[in-house]
Amino acid sequence: MLYEFDTPVRKIPMRERHFHTATVVLGAMILSHIPLLNSLFEVEASSGALTFFIRGTMMHLGTQPFALANMGLMLTGQDEKQSKLYGIGMTVVMALMQEQHWTCTLQLVGISILLANAMNYLDVYGSISLSTALIFLNASERFVKEFMTYPTLVVVAIIIAVVWIDQLAVTIPLTHTRRRSQTISMRLPIMYNSTTALILYSTCTEICFPNEIIASVALVPAVYIINLQLPNIQKHTAKDLVREWAGENYIIRGWHSKQRMVKYVQGLIDRNIWWNTIILCGLWAISTACRTSITASTIFLLTSTAKQYVNQPMISLRG
């Protein structure tokens, strides 16, 4: 059901990777214009902000099941390699809940298997994930249509703000345990978990709780709770950092107690997580108030994806 593509023996140029991604995205867009057979749904032109789906077409569920499965695995700290298989299972459940003709269920499951294999293909030969590429396409279309309007200018301002704020960090001086003259600076970003918490929350509400009022009321506490859990899931807690530094023979300058170092670094992380939550929710509120053509969650997703091509890993002694 799922084909595992072999790792290429040669290095694939980025231009070729972009071509593979564009080809797969074109195929998905074609499917989004083909109506489901025996469907009771009318074709809708709109799709989600963080997942791609076009109601009434072969992409009726689109990437929603895969996003939900991937989010569940990430929040529980499980291996995400099986997310495609779980996504197909979620498709079956969601298709059966549609109360459509049985042929629609078969069509949706068949398309989900096709999408899962396409995602596996892009994981090896592509440049951007299928879901993100489709969101990029939708956002670009809206941006071009409303170019130079007030909401679009707000979108540009938010993107600039996110990129600038992401560069802010607290610096911790480290010294080598054997060569005291050798020192480096460890940066703990103010946006410690970047935009991941808001993207996860927005994806969950878009799929499971589409009511905007409920989503808005629970925004701050939900994003803060997710932000607190992400370091444990991604192995970026103070203990993990101090352990990594010790493995490279580095300690905080003038400190020798690992317990004190962990407590100090964890305090900085907790403070940065709080600021991360305030900044994310504040920019989300600005985007919502200005009724931008692209939602704040989509802006954060696009910005974080773009930064992957220019930024080094967030937690690294060599970063």
Helix and strand arrangement:
Layout: H1 14-31, H2 64-75, H3 83-96, H4 102-125, H5 130-145, H6 150-165, E1 169-176, E2 183-189, H7 196-207, H8 212-217, H9 219-234, H10 238-247, E3 250-252, H11 258-290, H12 296-307
Antiparallel strand pairs: 1-2, 1-3
The structural class is mainly alpha
Could you tell me the CATH topology label of the largest domain.
Preprotein translocase SecY subunit
Spell out the CATH superfamily of the largest domain: SecY subunit domain
What's the number of structural domains?
2
Q: Quickly name the level 1 CATH class of the largest domain.
A: Mainly Alpha
Order of helical and strand elements? HHHHHHEEHHHHEHH
The number of distinct β-strands equals: 3
Distance between the termini: 40 Å
Which percent range fits the helix content? 55-70%
Strand content: 5-15%
Number of helices: 12
Average pLDDT over all residues: 81
What coarse outline follows from CA principal-axis ratios?
globular
Largest sheet: spatial strand order: 2-1-3
The rounded Rg comes to 22 Å
Unreliable spans are 312-319
CATH architectural name of the largest domain:
Orthogonal Bundle
| Main beta sheet | 3 strands, antiparallel
